[in-house]
Amino acid sequence: MARGRRTHTTVRAWLGSGSPWVWLTAGAVSVNMVMVTGVIGLIGVRGLEHFWPARVEQFSYVEPGSDPAVYLGERVEAESVYRNRVAAGFDLPAAAERIDRYLYKIGNRDVTGLDFKWFVAPAMGAIERPASATVIEREEWGNLYAYPEAILQGDNEVAAGDALWRTLEERLARAASLRERIEEIEKDEIGAVNYAMERLRLEERDLAIHSGADPGARARIDAERARLQDGYERMSTELRALHAEIDRDSLRVRLADGRRIEVRLAKVLRVYRPNAMGLFARFALYASKLREFVFEDPREANTEGGIFPAIFGTVLMVLLMSVFTTPFGVVAAVYLHEYARQGTVTRIIRIAVNNLAGVPSVVYGVFGLGFFVYFLGSNIDRVFFAQALPAPTFGTPGLLWSSLTLAILTVPVVIVATEEGLSRIPRSIREGSLALGATRAETLWRTVLPMATPAMMTGLILAIARAAGEVAPLMLVGVVKLAPTLPLDGNFPYLHLERKFMHLGFHIYDVGFQSPNVEAARPLVYSTSLLLVVIVVALNLAAIQIRNRLREKYNAADS
């Protein structure tokens, strides 16, 4: 009995010491870290392996009721299924309850109509990996898996056999150079001319609305329009010549089933033989594909190419949101803590601020659409852009309204964090500053706010972490599937806040749930998700670094 009492007393003392709760908290944190690491690891592996050049395999396959066919492609996935899930008609082993099947990316969508196809293992012949099997990446219709036979210039064969690959590399480099020049003319030079022509049209309409007949202004507009038209004609002539030149070369290939087709080199981005590549060549190709994914524009309904516009739009929107939300959040926190009379009204305001942090984000999107776009934007158009009506300028979803909507969404976080930082500053510091003759405003500006800067940065870090991953409000106030131009370019005023933009979060949603080619889009969902996590972490680390430097600065000043 006495021993039981002593044991009970010891347990109670141990529980009262708080040690179990420390260990329990540490265990919970450890489990969370393992889970987060596992999720990020899974996303990273599934996303990054997509860019590794896989082996190309060739095999024969017998469909029920059909003649044997030969296929060439990359194995993407393997699984074992119950035999009742396999289509009827296959010659399956009688004793096997489960049957292996493989998903191959067979490409050649313009020829076969399929990009991916499942193959039942018992119906497959021997698998080979021919060294000459070639992957041809194209701007349209995805990959082509074939065997190159000859290079054609017009209708004439210019290279075949041993000279084919050397000539092919030269012709592909030439086509890439021409393609870059064509893109430069179409997007930059002609785009600038069209932008200038539109501004002239709006200026002419503004004259008609406000100034009436002004011969001098109209003559200047006509002269400028004529100059732009001459430049446009010169660019169009050069563009037609470049298109004729780039369409000169083509590649004749033999498909796995023996058919021969011709591929225009103007539409070919990359050609390689993965089965004949060494390790270093594979790493070089892997790095090239990663670079393309990060820095190029998307194509093929966002299932091919890169995601640079989405990266650019995400970072620019977060930066604009930070510019908008930080001053408003800090001013509101300073007023609530330093100037407002602490009473019932102030408590109600704080409760409202805390509740705003829990409002679903889509509600902010509806508010942004109704207030910013339909009310504020429409009035701005009526006052400042009447010449462009009925086409809206700011009365339509765009980058500015998206940034302001997310600023309102995240400003409660900045208010709470800043007010917490202000409350930690001892009252004696304020009184000492006042005693030395400083005014209340000088004390606030020169002493209190600098010491509260780390807390402000903490609020900004939390705001960035939330805003970067939001999707629901952005779908209503500015984000689109594919933006033809970036919000930042070389045309005055350079930063176009009225334009729509792409966002990584919406890109993930669009590719994952709206893509017509699900199998091709799946690895890009993982890759884009990983990149979004990396960008959020990078933005947070930058803010944390600034906060730590500020903390060290003012801690040293205090000591």
Outline the secondary-structure elements.
Layout (H helix, E strand, L loop, with lengths): L1 H15 L2 H30 L7 E6 L7 E14 L15 E8 L3 H4 L3 E5 L13 E5 L4 E11 L2 E5 L3 H48 L3 H32 L2 E6 L5 E5 L3 E5 L6 H17 L2 E2 L4 E2 L2 H32 L4 H13 L4 H24 L14 H26 L2 H9 L4 H28 L6 H4 L26 H10 L4 H41 L1
Antiparallel strand pairs: 1-2, 2-3, 3-4, 5-6, 5-10, 6-7, 6-8, 8-9, 11-12
Helix pairs in contact: 2-15, 4-5, 7-10, 7-12, 9-10, 10-12, 11-12, 12-15, 14-15
Written description of the protein model:
The protein is an alpha+beta fold and 559 residues long. The protein folds into three domains: 60-128, no CATH class; 148-291; 308-558, MetI-like fold. Helices cover 60% and strands 13% of the residues. The chain is built from 15 helices and twelve strands. It has helices at 2-16, 19-48, 109-112, 164-211, 215-246, 279-295, 308-339, 344-356, 361-384, 399-424, 427-435, 440-467, 474-477, 504-513, 518-558; strands spanning 56-61, 69-82, 98-105, 116-120, 134-138, 143-153, 156-160, 249-254, 260-264, 268-272, 298-299, 304-305. Strands 5, 6, 7, 8, 9 and 10 form a six-stranded antiparallel beta sheet that branches. It has a four-stranded antiparallel beta sheet with strand order 1-2-3-4, with no helix packed on it. A hairpin with a 7-residue loop joins strand 1 (56-61) and strand 2 (69-82). Helix 10 packs across helix 12 (440-467) and helix 12 (440-467) packs antiparallel against helix 15. The two termini are 58 Å apart. The mean pLDDT is 88.
